[in-house]
Amino acid sequence: MKNVFLLLFLLIPTVTWAESAITCHCFQDRTFNHQNTAAADPYFLATTQNSFLSLVYNVNKGTIVKAKMSGTDGAHLWILFDLAKRSGQDIGRVEQIYSQTKRWTDVFKQLNLTPQQLGETYWQRGRNPEKLADHIVDLQLKKYFSVNETELENWRKQGMGRKELILAMMLKGEPDKLYHQVTSGMQTWGELLYEQGLLDGKAINQKLAAQMAQS
Predict the structure, then answer these.
(1) Residue 188 and residue 28 in contact, taking contact as beta carbons nearer than 8 Å
(2) Looking at the domain assignment, is residue 25 inside a domain?
(3) Mean pLDDT computed over 66-95
(4) DSSP 8-state assignment for residue 127
């Protein structure tokens, strides 16, 4: 059922949704609050990842949010959009293949994508969607933020996931130090964003777009 809903959303690219009209169903706090500085942290992490995904693949952000509201997880979307871009196929077509096979490695083959084209790491991680999504995000972080594989591996070992890495990169600090500040209770993600004048999803999206345009 999840894939049916996702296919319907993605096959209607002209439909857009205002972020404020969608995220209110998922996040009660969507702006920085001086009285509760961590209240909007889940939203900030989610909207930054959604913005990055939207900008990398030129997909309407509302479509991404709507798909997630239908129950589709972030790993699925990262893989779906990346394979559509790599193969030159319509997103709906890639989703249709996956809904029939239920295995990304089978999708690779039906899209005529080889280990040489995708890379051995990409191909091997096709058996584990979460690890494949991490690999895809790492490739994009290396492209847009000039970080290397060793750095990413070290940060992930410290517990940083896709959302934390993307947000930390956007803040332009040392990701592991920023992450430690948050996990140790020294600061919240909201406070770190506030220090840079980033108070809501719109501001985050604009900052991220500007950074990526300079890469």
Answers:
(1) no
(2) no
(3) 96
(4) G
pTM above the 0.85 mark?
A: yes
Which residues form the domain of 73?
Answer: 2-16+37-213
The answer to whether 51 and 169 are in contact (CB under 8 A) is no
Helices marked H in 58-148:
61-69, 74-87, 91-101, 104-110, 115-118, 120-124, 129-145
Per-residue model confidence as pLDDT tens digits over 26-48: 688 999 999 999 999 999 999 99
Tell me the average pLDDT of the chain: 89
Q: How far apart are CA 111 and CA 88, in angstroms?
A: 9
Residue 18 has pLDDT above 80, yes or no: no
Q: Which residue has the tokens 């592991």?
A: 176
Number of domains in the chain: 1
Alpha-carbon distance 198 to 190, whole Å? 9
Q: Has residue 62 been placed in a domain?
A: yes
Task: Report how far apart, in Å, the C-alpha atoms of 78 and of each of 108, 123, 128, 151 are.
Answer: 14, 15, 13, 21
Tokens of 123: 């191909």
**What whole-number distance in Å separates Cα of residue 210 and Cα of residue 206?**
6
